[in-house]
Each structure stands twice: as C-alpha cells, then as structure tokens.
Amino acid sequence: MKISRDLSYHHELISQLFPKISAQEAWNEYRLSDEQLEFFNEYGYLTNVKILEEHQIQQLRLELAIIAEPSHPKHDLFYEFHSNQSNDPNSVLFHSLGHWRITPGFHDVLWNPRFVIAASQLLGDKAVRFWHDQLFCKPAHHGGVVAWHQDYSYWTRTTPMQHLTCWVGLDDATEDNGCLQYIPQSQKWKLLDKINLAGDMDSLKELLSAEQQKQYDQKVAVEMPAGYGTFHHPLMVHGSYENKSDRARRAFVLNVFADGTKSNSDDELLTGVPIIPTGQAIAGQFFPILFEPNKS
After folding, report:
1. Which DSSP symbol is given to 103?
2. To pair with 53 at 20 to 30 A between CA atoms, which of 21, 109, 202, 240?
3. What is the pLDDT of residues 238-256, one digit of tens each?
C-alpha cells in the first residue's frame, strides 16, 4: 500500500500496531458486559476500559513527542494546534485536533478493535462514524486545567445529538496530575452554554440551578492506569484540574457519532475541511465509518 502524506485518505489500518480481525472476532473478544452498559446508561460514563497494550502506549508517546513540535513538516494537517491554549506559562494546556492525519499510530487507533466495539455498543449498536480527535497534555509542575463543560455545547453544528467521547491516558491518571472528573448523571441536564476550555475551572457553575450545584459538589475523579479509557455521553459535565505533580499527564480523545448524523451549519465543520451543507449527512474523507455491526 502506498501511504499518502495525509493519512485521512486511508480508511483502514495502515500499520501493525493493532490487530486486523473480523467484526465478529472483535465482538467476541472485546464486547462490553450488560452491567457496563447499564452503568453507562444510568450515570453517563464508563471508566477503566482497557484500550491499549504497553507497546501501543509507547508508540503513541513517541509519535506525540514528534508532532508536538510546531516545526513538524505535517503541521499544516492539524485542524487546531495550541502549544498552550491558556496562554499562561504557569498553567500549560497543550491541545490539538487532527493528528490522525499525521502519524500511523494515531491514525490506526481509530480502528482499534477494543475501541470500536465499545463505541458501537454505547451508541446503541449503531455504525460508528469518526468525528474528530484531540490531544490534551499537561506537563509536570505547571499543567493547566480543562474547565467543566459538556462536549455537545461545542458540537451543535452537528445533529441529532448521537455522539460519544472516549478519553485515553498515555500516562497513569490520578487526582494529583489532573485526571478527568465527572458529575455523575449530569448527562440528564439540558444543554448548557459553551465556555472557555482553558479558562476559569468553575465558570460553568454560574449556569447551574441550586439542585445541579448540589450534584456538582459530588464530582468523581477518574483515576486509571495508562492505556485505559473512559467513555462519556455528549451532555456529561466533565473537566480536569491542574497538574502540580512531578509527572506529566498526556491523553488523547476520540470523538465519534452514529452514522446518519447531519451537518447543522453551512460553515466548515473543521478547519480546512470542505463544507457539508446544513441537512446533509456527514461522510467522506474526513469522517470515515470506523465500525458497522453485523459486518465481518
């Protein structure tokens, strides 16, 4: 196979990092239990799902170190790139979108059987279509926050709301180094206003009712070993605090939606991507199908 400079042209595995197995084999090995599905439906999230083996973690860490340099020769393929989205040198948050187009590991993780089977189940056994990826990295000692937010508040340019997020750590994630945190059952709240991700950690609190503020105070820290992932609903309120520890906290995010999701905007859905008119199903080069149930 001749590999293109822009890996978005390839809608299949292009390396040996993940196994090439049939949908049925993947289902038999990696499907979630009924108890896991029930927990997600009740609380809006599901944690501690193994996504990566150790050699896969090491490869993605290596690729991350390479593409984090603004001088990388494929830098133009990012949809967004922020060496520090907060602009405060004492509160650093590296955040980017589009790295699946750049390196084979971050490309192939989209088709990782451990990920796509769980994603399809959590979307109601529907075909999984890729939306976009993200990197969130907090250096040791001066890592910044990701303010409390709902993912769908940034995604109203797509409809209906049938989205799913998977956050995967490339380091052990703990409260000390700024692990992800959730407000359980907040996926049952209405859509709240969009806020500045790298701004005031608690700015969302001003938008909450008295009852919601009580739930807000019952947040849950998601501590997980490197290579494990957590899935959450698009209305789930989540965020992460600063990293003042002596360990980095690196993570990537895979955002997907059920096939049939449509554009809700006549502007670009992602920077540099051809416009998909309002009402048209989202598909094509930049939004590939990752998994279809009952297909081997």
Report:
1. -
2. 240
3. 999 999 999 999 999 999 9
* Low-confidence residues in the chain, pLDDT < 70: 295-296
Among positive and negative, which fits the CA dihedral 198, 200, 206, 208? Answer: positive
Q: Tell me: the pLDDT tens digits for 86-102?
A: 989 999 999 999 999 99
- SS3 helix, strand, coil % of the chain, rounded to 5? 25, 25, 50
Sequence-distant (6+) residues with CB within 8 A of 290 are: 110, 111, 116, 119, 128, 129, 130, 256
The phi and psi torsions of 218 (rounded to 5 degrees) equal -110, 30
**pLDDT given at position 296:** 44
CA distance 107 to 27: 21
In tens, the pLDDT along 5-34 reads 999 999 999 999 999 999 999 999 999 999
Alpha-carbon distance 172 to 178, whole Å? 10
Question: Residue 293 carries which side chain, given as an amino acid letter?
Answer: P
φ and ψ at residue 128, rounded to 5 degrees: -100, 125
- Position 295 scores a pLDDT of 55
DSSP lists the bridge partners of residue 80 as: 97
- Please give the distance of CA 171 from its chain centroid, rounded to a whole number: 15
Encoded tokens for 170: 């490339």
Quick one: tokens of 61? 């860490």
DSSP state letters, 68-123: TSTT-TTGGG-SEEES-TT--TTSB-EEEE-GGGT-HHHHHGGG-HHHHHHHHHHT
10 Å Cβ neighbour count for 187?
21
Give me 99's structure tokens. Answer: 């790295």
Question: What is the residue whose two structure tokens read 């993200």?
Answer: 134
Mean pLDDT over each residue of the chain, to the nearest integer: 96
Q: What length is written for the chain?
A: 296
